[in-house]
Design brief:
Glucose Permease (Domain IIA); 3-stranded antiparallel β-sheet; Si:ch1073-204b8.1; mainly beta; globular
Length: 157
Amino acid sequence: ESIQLWLSLFLHFTLPSPSPLPDSGAWDVLCSGHHSNRVRGCDKFGCGHFNSKRGSHVHKAVDIVCDDYTVVHAPFTGMLRGRVQPHGDSSTNDDGVELSNSVHCVKIFNIRPSRYKGFVSKGESLGYVLPMQEKYSGITSHLHLQMCDKSDPTPYI
């Protein structure tokens, strides 16, 4: 019994502890010039929080307040997996990118990515926010942040 205790203590204090999952905590601030990721409130175009009503559908994302043309940063380290177009058309605001790692997968819309593929570090520039005011006068300018599985990203921001 004392040998088992000794061995257990020896292993506990000599083996390295497993490293935590990458970026399993809070994400970085997405928009330059902001100190936090603030979810868009309600305006005449709707509300920006997760599960808000959008006409006949439910908003399965959050809208993060950002000024038009603001630089957008990677919320976590990962791989850019390609272009995403939420509307499937050629409108000026129909652009974005998918970012994922072993823990998270997000789609970030209403941005013009500087590239669509490759490795990015947390905080690295992804591109800039597309101009919302040109298409939706009076809307609170924002980017659209959606988990790939459409779960709620709010706990991470």
